[in-house]
Amino acid sequence: MVVAGADVTSITKWSFFGRLIIFILLVCILQAVYFLFFSSSIYEHQRSYFFDPNLACPQQILYFGDSTVVYRCDPDGPSLFEAVKERLGPQWSIGQVAHPAYSLTQYETFCRYLSKHDSRPEAVIIPINLRSFTTGWDMRPEWQFQRETVYALYDSFLYRVFFTPLTIFKAPQFNLSPIEAGTFQRLPVYKGTELVGTVKEFDVSEVEDLSQQFVFRYMQSIKSSDRKAQSLKCLARLGRQMNLKVIFYITPIDYETGIAELGDAFEQQITMNIETLQALAANEGSAIFDLSRLLSSDMFCHESAHPNEHVTSEGMAILAEEVAKVTRAAMDEMQMLHQASDLSRLHQ
Amino acid sequence: MLFNSFHFIVFFPIVAAIYFGMPHRFRWMLLLVASYYFYMCWRPEYIILIVLSTFVDFWVARKIEDAPHPGHKKILLLISLFVNFGLLFTFKYFNFVTTSLNDVFSAIHAPMSIPALDVLLPVGISFYTFQEVSYVIDVYRGQLPAQRHFGIFAVYVSFFPQLVAGPIERSGKLMPQFFERHAFDPHAAIMGLRLILWGMCKKVVVADNLATVVDRIYQMPDAYSGPALALGTACFAFQIYCDFAGYSDIALGTAQIMGFRLMRNFDRPYRSRSIGEFWQRWHISLSTWFRDYVYIPLGGNRVAIPRLYLNIMIVFGISGLWHGANWTFLIWGLLHGSYYVIGSLTARPRAALVRLIQLDKAPRVHAVLQAVVVFVIVNFAWIFFRAPNVQTAWTVISRLPIGWDVVFHVGWNELAYAMSMLTLAPLGDGVKYGLVLSAYILLVLAYDTLSRHDDWSAAIHKYPTPIRWAAYAVITIAILNLGVTKVVPFQYFQF
Description:
The complex is a heterodimer of chains A (348) and B (495).
Chain A: H1 6-9, H2 13-38, H3 40-50, H4 53-56, E1 61-65, H5 67-70, H6 80-88, E2 94-98, H7 104-115, E3 123-128, H8 135-138, H9 146-153, H10 157-168, H11 181-185, E4 188-191, E5 194-198, H12 199-202, H13 210-218, H14 227-242, E6 245-250, H15 255-262, H16 264-283, E7 288-290, H17 313-347
Parallel strand pairs in A: 1-2, 1-3, 3-6, 6-7
Antiparallel strand pairs in A: 4-5
Helix pairs in contact in A: 2-3, 6-17, 7-9, 7-14, 14-16, 15-16
Chain B: H1 6-21, H2 24-40, H3 47-66, H4 70-107, H5 125-140, H6 150-158, H7 171-174, H8 186-219, H9 226-257, H10 275-281, H11 284-295, H12 305-323, H13 327-345, H14 347-356, H15 363-386, H16 390-399, H17 404-410, H18 413-420, H19 431-450, H20 456-461, H21 465-482
Helix pairs in contact in B: 1-2, 2-6, 3-4, 3-5, 3-6, 4-5, 8-9, 8-19, 8-21, 9-15, 9-18, 11-12, 12-13, 13-15, 15-16
């Protein structure tokens, strides 16, 4: 007969530890059961929410992207991804893995995920948004996408079972909110290398001074040690190691307004930043197509007073044509290389 | 370091294992190193404040004991109070005072402005300051001999389970325990683990999830009307309770595993039938501190009635400011003081009314009604506690009467909307998850508030092993899966 509480008073040190170990094992088993049966719907929800099926079963070409790829200035018109897809035609299958605030950090994570799996695309298209290097984007708490990062990097059954507990208890590498809102607000904003204020002063919903917004969004000097610059380097290297064609391009920015607001300094800073990125990529054997000056000011979608990289239907047609052209050339080059290697194998 | 962190889950078993494995005479060193490490995980540089005040109070207490004249003792006491409260004022209240003065200067168009200090509020400064002050006052009063072992005194000040959010322990009770030889006691360990489990459940599952509802509503009170604001405030009442009581449970459990007995800090406060009773059940260690070191020195009950009420208002006002350097906390404290005074003034007419409507013949109904009234007025005061400023609190109060017709005539849409925010699971918007979470939270709150047992560890002890284990397993799985993934710091850390 089990007597209430009787075992507790008579318990010895070793039976305590024995029971503790049994309880921990029991919890592990229950956690696995919970994960497999009860939380399956949540799990599926997670997967579809932050883990695009296009990544798990990639097409020939994967188009990574931010808002420039998914945004429609004309609600009835196509997105950039759709426009590029249409231009590439049925010759190649193409899928997108995009979120309005993804950036090189996430693309690097996704490529690391791809590197661990056999099912891979032949090429990835990566837009580089110059704004994503600034503090206002790079350090914004809600744009860290730690969940995707953790999930992609620790994609095994054991990690999936304990993913939620590890994130709740903020295990190292599993902290999904590494930057607090207050900390973000206090971070510095730079114009070139000169400190001009904090995020709190610049990150405003109503714009009074457009030139300040251009400073906040584009004028920070990009250094090769910046974490997003390092991601770019890593992406180029991963592409080479995986035999994956990585097509980088710089997204167009409202260049004309930037110069009108900030003068030559704007042009000089943007040129310097792009050169830094191109040099980094070149070191790893990759090229970056600079489309930053592709569009005139009237081709940007000025739905808000803030400068942004969203383009009108007209601008999108030009941009899509350029991206498709570059992609087509890259794919043709890949095909020729494949053919050449097949031939050499045949000769051997 | 947070209790509900992977860091602590690794840290504590290591400390406990080394603690029981090493000779007694060295244990204070381990506790001191562990406690300083625990604190330094937040901001290493602020350990200097603890070390400084520890040196000062250790030295002052010894000098007080040795001082031949009462006048000398008083001067030494004042030195200690000046250092302790000086640090507290500098880091906690200076900016509040300067901002308030600058507002006054601005209002009278005086060309003056006092610059603010660019400092962060050191975590737990109010807790350890009060703990040290109580020690020095006890020595001054001759109620306690001065501690001669600096290491033990330093551990008393910084003992990690209760360093950053209490309970505010009395030196006479805690300090002698550091001299006791604690052998590992499986029974104490089980009781401690049960407390930790229950505390984690309250903090991780209930408080953190309720915080998401409360934060949404209090970030934009303009966007909500009465029902949602009332719900948000009620959620905050349980959030702050589960947050703080959860922390206290974990603190008690952690200490208990190592053989230390800390005082209970909460005793089902929302069962209280009067404000006086509420303060005997809520943050007990602070209430008794104010009773012993402020209220009684002011004259306690042995003064004329007007002076008594003034004393009560002073104590509650200081208690409010102890919680934070903001007018909202002062108003919160004064509201509780006025509840107490009004309750005292109306005791006789209320008793007459109860007899008149024959409520005294249904004592249970009477008790429930009293508890509901106390809960409502405590909730009203929580509005000021939660609101970031008086303006926001006023917005909440002014909008409270609006929109109740939606509930009574159109339906429960708005309430349902507010409730649906509970289903905003940390992993997404799964309905099943939301339902499980809501049911679990309600179950925990119902048990914790309505249970006849004031100690869940003792209560569960009465059940057979399979039921106990089933309860442990369900609670553990809930903690591991129903918590929120963003960082929700313990509310009382900021005090």
